[in-house]
């Protein structure tokens, strides 16, 4: 059983409980459900830097990254740094995140917010909208082609952008469909947790130009971005590199300043 199998096994139990606690009708009545969303894909297309900065407290590969930060400061700091969007991990068991982290980010900034979650049920997409997200993540490795279609079409009806994440060619081929906005290549091998930019390089030419290309994980310096931009990547998802510092916003500011130099 790999880490994604374990996470999705636990997620099914969690989502079934959540559905009983807060029915869909109640989510649909939340104030944020009516909010006009902001397109991350559009922001990335218009940007020269393309940074999506993540709120990530811990992870299966690194354990604790940073537990002591105030979510408000992180979101405000990222916004002041000039990032294009913010990713908020909402999984509790493996990443120490929560939907409260998403709400805090929503209350603190006007960035497009990605709900970084292991989505296996339509309920989580409605929940994402009700808690202020603008974008959802769909992970090809844990979904069938039919689920990717069903979930991405629901997201589009709710005016949410869709970032579809792949790790290899097979996942990419099964996923390409018009209801996606961004295709993300995850550089982290989920069996070994090793990260390699080669994954992004190798898959780039197989991604049709209709989608905004995003490279995810293991990006720890500006050089990595300079290497990936010629492969057509417009978005760069960075978590640990910013979150391991005492001031992720300041770290993102310095990173973007270096990128613009
Ligand atoms: O980060 C992990 O260890 C991890 C393990 C299993 C599934 C997903 C995982 N991470 C989620 C992400 O995709 C990253 O948080 C994101 O791409 C940022 O990565 P990084 O910049 O390397 O923190």
Keywords:
alpha/beta, eight-stranded parallel barrel, two-stranded antiparallel ribbon, 12 helices, 10 strands, globular
Question: Would you give an account of this structure?
Answer:
The protein is of the alpha/beta class and 261 residues long. It has one domain: TIM Barrel (Alpha-Beta Barrel). The chain has twelve helices and ten strands. Strands 1-4-5-6-7-8-9-10 form an eight-stranded parallel barrel, surrounded by six helices. The chain is globular and about 50 Å long. The mean pLDDT is 97. The ligand O=C(O)c1ccccc1NCC(=O)[C@H](O)[C@H](O)COP(=O)(O)O binds next to strand 10 and helix 11. Ligand LARABZUK binds at residues 3, 54, 56, 59-61, 186, 188, 190, 216-219, 237-241.
Outline the fold blueprint.
Elements: H1 3-21, H2 24-28, H3 40-46, E1 51-55, E2 58-59, E3 63-64, H4 71-81, E4 85-89, H5 99-108, E5 113-116, H6 122-130, E6 135-139, H7 145-157, E7 161-166, H8 169-175, E8 182-186, H9 198-204, E9 212-216, H10 222-228, E10 233-238, H11 240-243, H12 248-260
Parallel strand pairs: 1-4, 1-10, 4-5, 5-6, 6-7, 7-8, 8-9, 9-10
Antiparallel strand pairs: 2-3
The structure holds ligand LARABZUK.
């Amino acid at each position: 059983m790999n880490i994604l199998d374990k996470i999705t096994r636990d997620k099914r139990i969690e989502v079934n409980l959540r559905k009983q606690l807060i029915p869909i009708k109640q989510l649909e009545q939340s104030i944020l459900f009516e909010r006009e969303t902001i397109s991350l894909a559009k922001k990335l297309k218009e940007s020269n830097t393309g940074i999506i900065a993540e709120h990530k407290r811990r992870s299966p590969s690194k354990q604790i990254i940073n537990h002591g930060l105030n979510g408000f400061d992180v979101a405000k700091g990222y916004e002041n740094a000039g990032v294009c969007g913010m990713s908020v991990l909402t999984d509790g068991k493996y990443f120490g995140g929560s939907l409260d982290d998403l709400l805090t980010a929503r209350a603190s900034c006007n960035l497009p917010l990605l709900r970084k979650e292991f989505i296996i049920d339509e309920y989580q997409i409605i929940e994402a909208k009700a808690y202020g997200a603008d974008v959802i993540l769909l992970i090809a490795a844990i979904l069938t082609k039919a689920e990717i279609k069903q979930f991405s079409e629901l997201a589009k009806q709710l005016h949410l952008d869709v970032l579809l994440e792949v790790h290899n060619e097979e996942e990419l081929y099964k996923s390409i469909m018009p209801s996606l906005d961004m295709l993300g290549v995850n550089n982290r091998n989920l069996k070994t947790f090793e990260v390699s930019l080669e994954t992004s390089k190798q898959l780039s030419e197989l991604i049709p130009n209709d989608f905004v290309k995003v490279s995810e994980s293991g990006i720890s310096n500006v050089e990595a971005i300079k290497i990936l931009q010629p492969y057509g990547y417009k978005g760069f998802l960075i978590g640990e590199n910013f979150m391991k510092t005492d001031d992720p916003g300041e770290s993102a500011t310095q990173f973007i300043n270096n990128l613009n130099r």
